[in-house]
């Protein structure tokens, strides 16, 4: 685990202050990292070693705390978290940094945001890495209302729903605004039509842990796309797949093929 926190800056979009870091080789191919639900740029990308891995390989590594998360502003309205709105935050960050095109890598909710970004702004996306979300992108990942209920419960002791307990404990660990996260989980679950997945031309790598009971099949999602490949991350569940060495190795090999300028 890498605990060296980068220096964060901020910009404004949609009336919100959003914080981000810009690390690695400033002249390297840019990679924009979009973290998952209840996480932060540090928890998802710095601590598991992604920033170091990509930076050491010569990439410019950019990530922000999504709205509702980390040190970014936290609206309590579920409508503020629609994935197409959060996708515009990502594009606004690229605009702020003067980056015309980037490799975009998202995990779980961040993968959904990445897809909405690619659909709305295909010319801004050189490649996609979608982690922790397979065919659940189009078919759903089950009932998440209990997660919102767990986040708003008076205490973790009263939460009996297993997945709800997991996310409530994670939110407490990251000292998150639980009201904002409850709004986020209610507002950010819009599905992507299978036909829309087929419109994404960007080269895509889809990585899902073999023990992930949330994401759904990476192979099935890749089968909907013209230039996608699936990756099984062996022995990893939804929480642990993100930092796995097999995932990192596959991403570096993928980027060697698709991201050179």
TrEMBL record:
Entry-linked Pfam families: Abhydrolase_1 (PF00561)
Molecular function terms from GO: triacylglycerol lipase activity
Residue intervals of the AB hydrolase-1 domain: 29-152
InterPro entries: AB_hydrolase (IPR050471), AB_hydrolase_1 (IPR000073), AB_hydrolase_fold (IPR029058)
Gene Ontology biological-process entries: glycerolipid catabolic process
Keyword ATP-binding attributed: no
Record keywords, A-Z: Hydrolase
Protein name: Alpha/beta hydrolase family protein
